Structures are given as C-alpha cells and as structure tokens.
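User: structure tokens for Protein ORGANELLE TRANSCRIPT PROCESSING 51, please.
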Amino acid sequence: IEAAQLPVLAIDSLMASTSYCATPSPSLRCSAAFFPSFASPPPVLRFAVPPLPPRRLAISPPRVPIPAVASALESLVQESDDEDDEDDESGLFKDEAWASADERDAVRSPELVVPELEELPEQWRRSRIAWLCKELPAYKHSTFTRILNAQRKWLTQEDATYVAVHCLRIRDNDAAFRVFSWMERQHWYRFNFALATRVADFLGREGKVEKCREMFEAMVKQGRVPAESTFHILTVAYLSTPRGRCLEHACTIYNQMIQMGGYKPRLSLHNSLFRALVSKTGGTAKHNLRQAEFIYHNLVTTNLEVHKEVYAGLIWLHSYQDVIDRDRIIALRKEMKQAGFDESIDVLVSVMRAFSKEGRVQETEATWHEILQRGSELPAQAYVCRMEVYARTGESMKSLDIFREMKRQSIPPNVATYHKIIEIIANAEEIDVAEQLMDEFSESHMKHLMPAFLALMYMYLDLDMHEKLELTFSKCLARCRPNRILYTIYLESLIRAGNVEKAEEVFDEMHKKGTIGTNAKSCNIMLRGYISAEDYQKAEKVYDMMCKKKYDVQEDLLEELQTGLRLGKKVAVKPKPVSMKLDQEQREILIGLLLGGTQIESHAQRGVHIVHFKFQEDSDTHSVLRVHIHERFFEWLTSASRSFEDESKIPYEFSTIPHLHFGFFADQFFLKGQPVLPKLIHRWLSPRVLAYWFMFGGFKLSSGDIVLKVSGGNSEGVERIVNSLHAQSLPSKVKRKGQFFWIGFQGSNADSFWKVIEPYVLDGFLGLTTQESGTAGSGDDQETDTDSDDDAHKDGSEE
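Assistant: Done. Predicted tokens:
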C-alpha cells in the first residue's frame, strides 16, 4: 500500500502501535555515537558542547559506547600475534598494550540539527513521516526503495533527513544509508555535510567499511574535507577488517587525514596503524617501511610519545630490507637509548640480521655475546643470523657447527633454520651432508619443503647429477605443490643430459598446466635443446611462439638457429613482426575476469583502453591465478610488468599496454565508467568463461555449494545469465547483497556446474576454492540479503 494513498486516519491507526520503531517523542534526543568508541565508557565531561536551539532534534554523544566495533583500537593492538611463520620473531609485541587509546578526548564532528515533528505545520505530513520511520527499517533494499519512490510527490529533503536521523537513532545504519543514497538521486537534493558525516561515522563504527568509504568519497567529490571523526573511524574500521587490501586502504585514509585534512591523529591511531604494519611476516612487511617511517615522522613532529615498540618495529623492518641502511639503524638505536629504553632481545636479533646480511662477522658475534649476557632463552633466529654471516664469508662448515650447537642446546630447529642450513650446505656442494639434512627435514613432518628441495636440485644441476635431480623432482611432486621454478630446473637438467624427447614432454606439460606455464627462460632452454639435437623445424616453432609472446631470445641461440636453417637451405631467421591479436582462449578468459570484477580504463588516446588485473594478496586462489594470467597475457603486458622472471615476485596488480582490441570489451562491460552486463552476455557463457569467472570472482563453500559474484549490471542482465545457465541444465538462484548480485548453485546443481567447468579449472585449484575466512561474502555484502524475486526490479531511481 502506498503511503501517499492512505487516509490520515488510517495512518494514525498505524501509529498506535507500540513498536520500538514508532514515532519518536518530540523531546527525544537521538543517542547515536559519532566519535570512536573504546573499551571503557567515555568520561562524562569531554568538551563543551554548545546548547541546542529550542525545539530541535539533535544527535548527541552516547552515554554508552556502541558494542559493534567497540574498543577496536584496544582489541587490535592488545591481542597476541599468533601468526605461524618461519621468518618472523614470534611475539614481537606480545602482551603489550602500548598502542591502546591513551587519549580519550572525543573527535569532533559537525553538529546535525533536525526539526522536530511538532514543528511541521501539516498533520498529514507528520503522520506520513512517522509512518515511514516505523515501516522502512523492516524492508530490504528493493521494497525499501519502492516505498520511498511512492512518496516523491510530497517528500522533501528535510523530511528525508528526519527519517535518516531516526534510522541512526534506532541503530539501523543500513537503512539510514539507503535513505541518504535515495536522497542523492532526487532533483531537490542539496548536499548535507553534517548528515553525510553522521551516516559515514555510524557505518564505519559498525564495520561497514565499503559503505563508509562510499560516503567518504561522496564528501570529497563535493569538494568538502571529511571531518576528523570520519577519517579516524574509517581508518579504525579498515584495521578491524583483516582481509584483502584493507591495510593499504587504512594507510591511504591515514595519509589523507594528515595531508588533505590537515588533522593531527591521536597517539592511539598512530600506534594502531604502526602495529598493523609490523604484524605481517618479515618478507611481506618489509615493503611497509616507507609508511612506518612516515608514522614515526608524524609522532616526532607532533611531539607525541614514541613508544619502545615503534623503535623496535622500525629496526625490525630495516633488517629485512634487501639493501641495509646501516646509518639509519644506528640512528634509531641511539634515539631509542636517549628515550630511556633498553634494547630487547628482539631488537638485538634484528641488529644481528642486518649485520649478517652485510657479512659483518665481528659485529654479529658482538651482538650475539650481548644476547648471551642477558641470560634469557636463546632465539632460533639468532642462530640463523650467525649461520648466514659465516656462509657469506665462505665458512660453510662453521655454519654447520652452529646448527649442531643449536641442537645440543636443546633448541629445536624451525622451518627457517632448516631452509638456511640446507641452502648453505648445498651451495658449498657438500652432497652427503646436504642429503642427510634434507632427510632429517623431511622426517620432521614440517611444512614448506619446497625451498629445501630447490636448493638440493640446484646443487645436483651444477654437479651434473641428473639422475639424483630427477629423483628429487619426483619426491618434491609427492610432497609439495609444484611451481614453474621446479619444472624449469628439471627441464634444464633433461636438456643438459641430452634427453630432448623427455624434455619436450615436460615442456608441453608446463604449457598445458595453467598453474605452471612457460616463460622466456623455459622457452630458451627448449630452443637450445632442439638446436643441439639439430631439430630446426621444432626449434623454429618455439622461436615463433617466443616472438608471439614477446619473449627475449638469447643472441647465441638466434645465431645458431640462423646457421642451422641456412644449412637446411631455408631463409635466414629474422625477427618476425608480431600482429597483436587476442586469441579465442584469451578472449574467453577476459570475459570471465570481467564478470568477476576486472577493470578496463580508457587511455588518453581516443579509442584505446587498458586492462587492469588486480588480485587479492590474502587469497591463495588469487595467488595461483595471478601467475597464470601473467603468463597467458604476457605479450599484452607493459614492459615493467614483463620484467619478472621469478613467479614469486610477480605483483598482484599489473596492466596491459593501451590497445584498440580492448575497446570492444570496454564498450560491452562498462557504461560511463561503471560496470554493466552486455546484452549478449547469455551467448558468451562458455565453459571456459564460467571457469575463469569462478576462479576470479567465485568460491566454493564447505557444504559444496558454489557462488559467483556478478560485477555490475542490473536484474535484467542477471536474469539473462540465469536463463542461459538454465538452458545449459544449470539451475541457479540469485540473491542481492549490497551492490552486488550473487548467483548460487546448490547440491546436485553445484556438482553439475563443477563438471562443466572442471576441464578448464587450473590444476590443484580444487583444494583452494573453499571460501577463505574474511574474504568473499563478508563485510558490507551481508546486510541486504534478498531473494531474486524481490530484486527483479531496478533501484527505482527513474522518475
């Protein structure tokens, strides 16, 4: 029933309900929080609040903090770091409350004043607004919008603002966000900075980071600098969401808070963000050094207290850098002592790591003796540093003695220790000792055996022990997930042994396996094998493939190939011009990725577009897919993106060159920069497209059900997809969560869907496809769960 058609008496009878969503009392103050909450209730006296005008409804600070994301800072910085990693010192900041909220003053935000219902002259308007306040929170997105659309003839911005404030009062922040979004689409809308700030703060406090960020960006687009409270709450919300790129987003908002807003963050925010930066493993956290130094600079320049853990964290980050800044470490140690802090065992181990990377034996041993004088438990990482420094000076057996001394001290070696000692002994080509250590490591039932296997295989390759290398390759396949480096070493061994036929089988297997793939190095190895076997016909085919993929061909191999073809009375080989064209497989892969959320942007040159591939760093499935996509689209990537030989160094974001061929996909999948579904999408849903859509934008639940996220589009486009799947005997269900549609396959339908896509799913992908905690389907996408019937309408923004 549309409210606009209800008689006044009928509406009044509705308001007789005693529901908690009924008409707010005229004298009611909305006790909605808009400053960061903490573990304990805020003090009664915080700062002087100007008196409210008479007969006005205002949002005031709460008497009790909201529990949704309460004490986000304390819980973030006080919880122990139980991350299991071989490179990181466990418990670097364990049981420390140094990053707790020391400054309890509320962060100011603009005051929002809303007229009371009694001030409205028309009785019918008061009744209708009261009816909306009662009914709207009970509905989901589509019905919610339809009800608001039915009131457009009489509803004004002041009326809608009152409804949004009421939703904030009853803690239905999603409803307030929907009301605000609906207001933005109306012709009478005028940007209300105070209301936008309140809605953003409430959403961020509840952990709705995407919606809070959307409100944040809306303020920036209006040319307004968001309030300090919005910056603070959004940063905390990102830090409280340990998934995807949330830490990167938190750093971005923190930097904008200082550089764009000119605000001075509180000490607790500095410390919380710093701790998040150093909470990762050493190999990953080393890229956060620049941001950590920026936080330290802000602490010093704003005369805030620099905690001991900040000094320790900076030294720890510097010790993991590829190039050690020795002067900076010395300066930090000096500043730490001037501040009255003693160097902990963790700091001394970090100093040892930095010295060992530079091969400074005396400084490393001096720091080691300082650790011994402390009389505390000796960390295994310190032994690793000593082993490394002696290995750099060529005393590999001294490193072995340190490893044995460690075991005599009843200190159990961890994964990092075995990796280091096996690498050192293998580089020294001590075969028997290396094999003995490898057997001991394998029998310990520890994980992460791959680096040790690779070190052993490199040793066998240098010593031309090809039979042992092949045996080690087989053992590694049985214990570890294979990668391209493993296959490349084995391929090199087969070529050196003259077994070109077997090498050809391995090369074809690499090319067919999406999780392995080939690269410039493996192609050059195979090209050398064919030339050495004087099989110039196959060598020319490999050369043609390398030209197509824009792989660099070694000059000596090119000369030998030219000589061989001349002897065979063929024309000399010349660099062939590459005709850039997407093949069928690449087109289908790209469609699947676009359905999952891959972006295409227009270039400065008209008609030319760029594809941006972006993968989640905390997802094992995306990590595997990233390497595969990098190999399949190698010839389309920029020169910077093609410069990575080691697959572990391939970035999680890379882009293609600007090209006309991407214009078709941009026109089909994007409209004015926003993702849409092509009208012919139902014709393009091949098994390969569905497979890559699933690998990039879908996941498999523990129950066996399969879910696909639809990026962009409306209900009509989703309906075309569902009908096309149904025509392929793949019945599915549709739900809308937030701004995305989700297509799900349950029970036997999920099994049928898997049988269709299985031939195109990357090998070893099945064990990774179960939904990872904290990634897909979490966060802001869970508050508007509606059935497809309710969503078979547009958002209702049309006039």
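User: Anything notable?

Assistant: Residues 1-106, 771-799 have pLDDT under 50 and may be disordered.
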